[in-house]
Records
---
Amino acid sequence: MEEKPARLTGARFLIQAEEAEAMAKEAGVAAVTELLPLLVPAAQRLARPPISNYRVGAVGLGTSGRIFLGANLEFPGLPLNHSVHAEQFLVANAAAHGETGIRCFAASTVPCGHCRQFLQEIRGSAEIQILVTSDEEPAFRPLASLLPLPFGPHDLLHKGVPLLLEPHDNALGATVVPGGGGGRGLFDAIGEGRMEQRLRAAAEAAARASHAPYSGCVAGFAVADVDERVYAGSYLESAAYNPSLGPVQAAMVAWVAAGGGGGGEDGGWGIVAATLVEEEAAVVSHVGTARIFLEAMAPGAHLEAYRLRSSKAD
C-alpha cells in the first residue's frame, strides 16, 4: 500500500488511540508507530520560535495508544532558558493528559543534550525509541544510543519514588499564606472574584501533581484569558536541575495545546490573570520567574502568589 501524507486539521496536540489507528490506515502504514514521522511536519507548523525562526516538532506515542504532539516555544524579551523544547512540550502535554509512559517518538531533528537529559525522568527511558526525520535513513533507535552513560533518577532517588508521567499526589496543607502577588482590582473585575478562586484551585492541583523529587519544592501555575478560560502547568524537575521545566513554562504548554495564546507579531498572548502556588518554605521559588515572564509576555496581567504550608507541618 502506498504511503500517503498524514492529514491533521487545526492546531491539535492530542490524537486519541482510535483516531490514531484510523489515521494510520488512511495514510497507508501498517502501524501507528509509522504514522508518527508523517505527523512531524504538522507538529513543526505548530511551533512558535520568533527568536530563532527554527521550528522543531516532535510526535510521540503513549502507552495508552494516544499520540501527543510537541513543538518548541520561544518568548521574546526573556532569557533563552525560558524556551520550551519540542520534546519537553510533548512530555508535559502527555503528563497533563494523564499519560503514564512514552513508547516512542519522531522528531524533526535529533534531540539536544538538554532533552536527552530531561527524558531520563521517565521510567524505562533508555528503551524509548526515537526516529529523526531529518536523518538520511530515518529509523527508530533507543534513547540509550543517544545518551549511553546517563545520569538520572537512579543516581539520586529510591526505587519506589514516582517518576515523571507516574501519578503524583504531593501533600500540601490547606493553610494559604499570601505570597505577594499584587492588588485585587483585575480579579474583582473578572467574574466578581470567582476567577481568583478558579485560578488558585487550578494552580494548587498542578502543584499537587508536580514532579519535584530533588528539591521537594512542588509548584503549580495557572493562567486565565478574557474569556475566563483557565490552564495550568506543574513543575517538572530533572535530576540534572537545569533541564527542569518550570510551572510557568508548563502552563504555557497547556495554554498553547488548548489553542490559546496569540503569539503573533504584537507579542500578545491574551493572558489577563495568573496564579502561582508553591510551598511556604520552598528553597526553590518561581515567583520571580512568573513576574518577569508576565512583564514580558502579558504586561497587563495580574499575578497572585500563594504559599501553602506542607501538611507535614500541620
---
Amino acid sequence: MATTSTAAPPRKWWQVPRPLQKVFDTFPLLAYDVNALPARAQSATSGDLPTLYVFSTEEEALLGAPSFNPSCLKWQAFLKLAGVKFQILPSTNHASPTGALPFILPARSSPTDVPSPIPSSKLHDYALKYGTSNPPEVSALRLDAYQALLDVPIRNAWLQALYRDPQYIDLLDRFYITPASSSYWVRGALRHQLRRAAETEIRKTGPGGAASTALSLLVDEHSVYRAAVKALEALATLLSESKTGWFFGAETPTIFDASVFAYTHLMLKYMSDAEGEVEGEKDFILASRKLGIMVRSAGSGELEQHHRRLFELLWLADSNAELLDTKARGNKLLQVQLQA
C-alpha cells in the first residue's frame, strides 16, 4: 500500500528560517530614539543664551576662544558673523545626541524647559533666523566649486598633518587623546584608530582631489601637501580679485569666509613657525610639512591677511566689551559643572 505525504510548500528565498524567526518573535526588533543629552548639559545651559557644544578645553570654552576643530570653528565663526549671542561648552562626539559636533542647545524658556538640540546641518538656518545680521548669500555654483578645495585637498592635508605626521603627535594627544582617557593602552588604541580613520578618509578622495581608483596601503604625504598648496594658491588668487577683502567680493564676510578661516586659523596657530621667518622656495614649503607656512606663502599673503581681519572682527572687536560678562558667566558655569 503506497503512502502519501503532503509536501511542504516551497519556501521563498527571502523567508527567515523558522528557528531564527522564533527568536525574532520572542525578541522583536525595536527602533530606539536618539541619545538623550546628559543631565549636565541641561543644567549648564543658560536660561538666556543658547549653548554651542564644540571640541574645546574647559578654560578656552569659558573664554569663548576658537575651537581647535575645523568643523566646530566654522559654525562658531558663522554664528558670530550672524550676530547670534551664545556661550560654548566643551564636548565630544560620544556626548552628542547626533553623534557629531557641533550642535547647539537653544536657551531655555523656563527652568523646566528641555530644548531639543540642533545639529550642524541646521545651524545655517538657525543663525539666519535668530541672528541680528544676515551674512550675504553666495551663488551655489561658485560656492560649490571653491568649497571642494576645502573639503578635499585642504581637509586631507589637515588630516595628514594632525593624525599621521609624527611632528604633530603631541598636538593630537593634547586635542583628542589625553582628554579621552588616562590609560596608556586606551590612548594607544585610540591614537591608532584615529590614524587609520584619517588614512581611510584621505584614500577615499586621493591626494589630488579626485576619487582614487586604487586604494594603496600607504598615503603619499607629499602628494597630499602638494595638492593643498595648489588649493591654497587658488583661494589666495580668488581673494586677490576681491575689492572688499572678503571672498566673492561680498561687502561683509559670508559662510565661505568662515569655512576658510576655520582651517587657516588652526594652521597658522598650531602648524607654523614664528611669524616673520623666511619661508623660502616651494620645495622648502613642502618639505617643512607645516601647513601654516603654506597658508602664509599662498599668493601674496592674502589668506593670512584675511585670517587676521576675520579674527579681529569676531574675537578681538568685542573682547573688551564682553570680558567682564564672560568672566561672570564662566564662573557661574564652572560652579554648575563642579556640582553636576
